[in-house]
Design goal:
The longest helix has 19 residues. The protein is globular, with a radius of gyration of 22 Å. By secondary structure, the protein is of the alpha+beta class. The protein contains 13 helices and 19 strands. The strands form 6 sheets. Strands 3-11-10-7-6-4-5 form a 7-stranded mixed beta sheet, with helices on both faces. The chain has a 4-stranded antiparallel beta sheet with strand order 14-17-19-18, with helices on one face. The model has no long low-confidence stretch (mean pLDDT 88).
Length: 383
């Protein structure tokens, strides 16, 4: 309480200073509009809409595309479960494509999963790695399939000089916990198709074009002004955060270069491609059996518990493992998509326990990097 009293005048002064930005109309506060415009300019994107989360950005994008009933949406098998939930809540069918050794969607398996019912394909730029999608997306367009880029873990990543999020019909970004732009929640939906983004804006603003002109069923996905203020200042410091993230990556590399391979350097000055390394992903030696990898993961996890904010071991179970998803697919007479054996996803199965995921977010410091890296190498040399 004492601390609040000491800072209360400063806080009130700050709020008063920002008050002009908080003036509100039906399409949002001036601050919200500034965030949308800033995001568009900073990452050279199309028009953007600020909403309450990346999941709701995805939900809104699907609604905006107005796809036919019982359409199929293809997603990588290691995608966040919340994305699958959105597909199910809207009554569509989630279909999963395998991943490759870079933990990105296997494009060959993707097109094996395409059917006449496929309406949307979701491409993820995982762990900060940028994907070159132009030829793949061109093929999707020929098939009449919409594409959505999930850039939640990769804002600022470059592919051939262009920021991720500029290739699909829609792109989504996250301000969620421990994301590269972490502001405790919130998300951005972006598109260079003005008609699509306008539909999305109407849906996200309760279905109204201009109050009280309601032109469709909509949602109230507006971010409140106090949260928007926080997002605004986090965005303003993003370039500095990227510099610090690069320094953490370089510190990891001093420990592991020449000792363990890591997934995707993705820094190529000649082509202008660069990963932002949301996670530093180490690959355990091919000489280790799957059983040895599982054992190693358990040892590392058990002995680095005091650094829980830095390390994650093993891929999470893919969404089709979730009981409800299987029940949903059966209910829709698509049991052939449910209860799939691991052999149907050899890439996922192969990579399940072969990687260690080391964080680069703001809570990671030099000391925690040193402790975890030294421990991993010591156990590796004794295994």
């Amino acid at each position: 309480m004492t601390e609040f009293k000491e800072n209360s005048e400063e806080i009130l002064s700050f709020i008063k200073e920002m008050e002009p930005l908080l003036n509100y109309d039906f399409e949002g506060s001036h601050l919200v509009k500034n965030i949308e415009h800033y995001f568009k300019r900073r990452f050279n994107l199309g028009n953007s809409v600020l909403v309450t989360s990346a999941s709701m950005a995805f939900y809104t994008a699907i609604l905006s595309l107005n796809i036919k009933e019982k359409s199929e949406v293809i997603l990588p098998v290691n995608i966040c479960q919340s994305m699958v939930n959105c597909v199910i809540l809207l009554g569509f069918i989630p279909v999963f494509a395998d991943i490759d050794d870079d933990l990105c969607m296997d494009i060959g398996d993707l097109f094996n999963k395409v059917s006449p019912s496929t309406s949307i394909i979701v491409f993820v730029h995982p762990f900060g790695f940028p994907l070159e999608l132009n030829s793949t997306i061109a093929q999707c367009k020929k098939l009449g399939i919409y594409t959505i880029e999930d850039c939640a873990q990769a804002p600022g990543a470059l592919i051939k000089g262009n920021y991720v999020g500029n290739q699909g019909d829609f792109s989504i970004f996250s301000f969620g916990q421990n994301k590269p732009i972490s502001a405790g929640g919130g998300g951005i939906l972006s598109s260079k198709n003005n008609e699509l983004i306008q539909k999305a804006r109407v849906i996200a603003r309760e279905g109204a074009q201009n109050y009280p002109n309601f032109i469709s069923v909509g949602l109230n996905l507006s971010v409140n002004e106090i949260h928007a203020l926080y997002i605004y200042f986090i965005l303003k410091s993003f370039d500095e955060k990227l510099i610090l993230k690069d320094k953490r990556i370089e510190r990891y590399k001093k420990y592991f270069t020449g000792k363990l391979n890591y997934v995707g350097d993705y820094i190529d000055a000649t082509t202008g491609s660069k990963s932002i390394f949301h996670k530093m992903i180490l690959k355990l030696p091919d000489t280790m059996t799957e059983e040895e990898c599982v054992k190693f993961n358990k040892i590392v996890s058990a002995n680095t518990i005091h650094n829980f904010n830095i390390i994650q071991t093993a891929l999470t179970n893919p969404p089709f493992k979730v009981k409800f998803v299987n029940q949903y697919l059966e209910m829709n007479n698509r049991s052939e998509l449910a209860y799939l054996p691991d052999s149907c996803f050899p890439g996922w199965r192969k990579n399940l326990n072969r990687y260690l995921y080391l964080s680069t977010h703001d809570l990671v410091n030099d000391k925690s990097i040193d402790i975890v890296s030294t421990f991993i190498l010591s156990k590796l040399s004794s295994s």
